Amino acid sequence: MIAVDGLNLSIRGMPILCEVSMQIAQGEIFGLVGESGSGKSMTALALMGLLPRGAAVSGHASLDGTDLLALREAQLQRLRGNDISMIFQEPMTALNPVQTIGDQVAETLLIHRRAGRVEALRRARAQLDRVGLGHIALDRYPHELSGGQRQRVCIAAAIALHPRLLIADEPTTALDVTTQAQILDLLKDLVTEENMALLLITHDLAVVSDIAHRIAVMQRGAIVEQGETAQVLRDRAHPYTRALFAASAHQPDRAASKTADAILRVEDVHRHYPSPRKGLARGTPVRAVDGVSFMLRRGESLGLVGESGCGKSTLTRAILGLDPLSAGSITLNGHPVSPTMPRAVRADMQVVFQDPYGSFNPRWRVDRILTEPFHLLDTLPPRDTAIAEALHAVRLSPDDALKYPHEFSGGQRQRIAIARALITRPRLLVLDEAVSALDVSVRAQILDLLAELQGQLGLSYLFISHDLTVVRAITDRVLVMQAGRIVEDGATEAVFTNPRHAYTQALLTAAPRLPNSFGAFIQ
Amino acid sequence: MTRYLLTRALSLTLTLIVASIVIFVVIEVIPGDPAAYMLGLNATPEAIDNLRAELDLGGSMGVRYFAWITGMLKGDFGTSYNYRVPVAGLVADRIWVSLPLALLALALSTLIAIPAGVIAASARGRAGDFAVIGVTQLGIAVPNFWFAMLLVAAFAVARPWFPSGGFPGWDAPLSALKSLTLPAIALALPQASILARVMRSALIETLDQDYIRTARAKGLNPGQAIRRHALRNALIPVLTILGLQFSFLLAGAIIIENVFYLPGLGQLIFNGITQRDLVVVESVTMLLVFAVIVVTFAVDIAYAIVDPRLRRR
Amino acid sequence: MMRLPPTLILGALITVFFAALAVLSLVWTPYDIASLSVSNRFQPWSGAHLLGTDQFGRDIASMLMEGTRTSIAVALVAIGIGVALGVPLGLAAAALRGSLLDEVIMRGNDMIFAFPSLVIAILITAIWGPSATNAILAIGIFNIPVFARVARGGALPIWTLDYILAARTAGKSRARISAEHVLPNIANLLIVQATIQFSLGILAEAALSYVGLGAQPPTASLGKMLSDAQTLTYSYPWLAILPGLSIVVLVLGLNLMGDGLRDALDPRLRRMRG
Lengths: 523, 313, 274
Prior knowledge:
Strand content of chain C: under 5%
CATH architecture of the largest domain in chain B: Orthogonal Bundle
Helix content of chain B: over 70%
Strand content of chain B: under 5%
Number of domains of chain B: 2
Number of strands of chain C: 0
Distance between the termini of chain B: 8 Å
CATH topology of the largest domain in chain B: MetI-like fold
Distance between the termini of chain C: 19 Å
Structural class of chain B: mainly alpha
Shape of chain B: globular
Order of helices and strands of chain C: HHHHHHHHH
Largest sheet of chain C: none
Order of helices and strands of chain B: HHHHHHHHHHHH
Helix content of chain C: over 70%
Number of helices of chain C: 9
Oligomer: heterotrimer
Number of strands of chain B: 0
CATH superfamily of the largest domain in chain B: MetI-like
């Protein structure tokens, strides 16, 4: 039904897509997988005719015989939202903040003149019910909805006119694990009910392995392999597919020695915020962290998982001594942790953040960035040696000290962040979603680096992540957090194979699974 | 929405009170003895005492301040020292020149600027955009009173299409409007230029947002995307500027009355300064600040209407 | 070396030209503007008087030079006041967002915004009389909340970035972080705003001296020149056109420079952010 044949794309002279060809049948879910820069989003935009200025396209892309690439803009406008629809990655910004959700869903009908205003709103109500938002009124605004709910609104608007093809560009990447599972289930149901084709674009092999009938793997603008999902993932004919698969399921070699003594003790920690005013009084305080206790042993890698809103960021900030506690205590090697703790204690615990693009002052050179934590030390080590050693430890060159952050890739920036964190020779490293923003192959390399450093330097890790696969690969023990409390605490393998708490079970069921080499599923 | 507006009203009332204290302190406290100041160096002690009694300057500062405030709330703005008539009367006559002028200029500049900004943003990087950028670049650089002088020379003296000065009063409305036309145009030019640029950049930034991409994906053409989605969002930063603009327009109106010999608040207050009529200066300044604050509140109301995120449920 | 935008080059050239004339006028003008010569009045432009003479026989070129100097000096010092007081306030408000200090600073800003420059000038001159200094104060005071608001607005998103958290885990105080991390990253915003306020300051000074609230004679000011020329606009147009044109061109130059700066500084930022 969709036949793409020899699609080439260049933008302002730069080649983006090279001879992309694929077919999608009606009622089929087609997964387009690739890392950032592979051109998968551009393929989708080419089909929709929404390419940026300066784009030169050649080849054919036909929808039931009509070549989309040969159509004029006015004709494309008639097709968009009508025969071919698209939903995007960021549900938080995909909706107009000053328009009701009812209006935004009804708009698809109004624009294509398929209904008057009253009728359009009635059908919008029906669509919203269909996507599971029956309990939400039409006159709500996007800011009153969660990320998952907003994505459902986008889906409702996209399928309102029963399109033949729905393109979903990383629709669940920005969502929690459980929400992701719900959205993917919704999409699966809609495909069956509508008998429409779904082009699902994602970087996550596990997601497509669960849901797609056929997949295509893209690398640097070209499709390297395509076919039936199970077969492609089993055979992995192309080296890139093999590499991608290996990286997705990568488990670094870890031989960390563990001692029994605790390096970090968190005892009955509470952190409450006053809630916003309702009328004259304030509501009950928000209990972001509601009685958390755990212990991290020397040389151990402890994972902390939870979805957004569970309180892990608040807990992290408290552990780092950035925010005060409402109750309870945190000690690092016996010293109390608080916003006023002495610098020597701070020097013993450092952090690596998620966003490689916000982690550094863009105006500072790498050498200055690396030595900022020297502020914590009383006796400064010789500067140049320290910088060179730090860069060497993360497999970067000493020349990199004179460069600026924007000259490095995402993975390299995370290495710099790790180097910065290690320069005061801390014994505890807090990794706050440190690999979440990285491509799968780069992620594997960074996990390897972290495992190696742990072995060499005897570090202890507190590994915070929402990604269960990553946590399983790199941690010895794991804590599961929900609504400010730890609901499960145990050895990683045990928790993953035999979860005791209902929430942990729900998380594990929802997480997409990649089949291992033998066809069974890796959890 | 009510909570937001109540908070803003409270905040602005506080601002009003602090502003009144500032004005009071500057006018009545800092000169030391306002009566002596008003009469000048050659005044005899008896004359100063007489004036002090006349102006009720005997009480303590706090008492005098409250007397002033309560007086104003009752509509009593004191008696002008120079004209010997209630300031309220003087202001009432003149405000019907200054305020309509400022409002006329506001309407004119908005009517020109908003479409111009939309055209520029829609035609971004092409001829329409460059034309608007070029004209507004010039418009921002022109002092409004200088432009007024040129307008008078061109359209009132060279060709007697408009009166070159004076104001006939609102009994002859058409004639009155004619007297206000050239001043309003002169006032509107630079403000329209600023507003057009703000509209343009607000719209350009809005057009970069994700929800515009969603709209296009639904099949909207660029014009529909602007009208149905971008415009309302872009209005939010524009509203801020509009509020500030009014205060500049009011100040500009006062200055421009000079070019056209309009009997507005400008004449009143500038004479008041040169003649050291502190009563007039105090009251008219308070009035101007009050007008600005009222407009600020009106803008806050407009915000709440346009942006639902400000109305927490 | 980056290619500079043409607006920046053109704007800078114009601005530097006027600034040079203004500085020159400190030591030399073609004629002394204090000398009146009734017999010499209303001369058209000639070899002796490049731009002619006014109704008092004063050389217009000299008056323009000194008038420009007044405008630039007033606007410059007014910016100085705004930056010196406004930027630290804005930075503090952003660093302590949500605290009482933040509220107080924001309310204070609103308070000053309720007083347009003209009204502040009226208040000041009512008590202390008109002068260039009072014009500087009136314009400068209004600049404070402008810069505070821009500084705070630019600083707030920076405080949410991870490298600020990294600095905090390095034990640095908020004040130190504001100075080392925040200020350099909002410098571009502030520079562009400064050129805007500079051109607004020139216009404000002209307006104030036009109504007699600014620099007093014998100090020359462009606004006063316009006020003197008002009744003569039709008969001797150049008396009104020349000072006005000077203002227009200078302000135009400043605005072009500001626009050019914004363009020049922005893409580099984007590239630096990767």
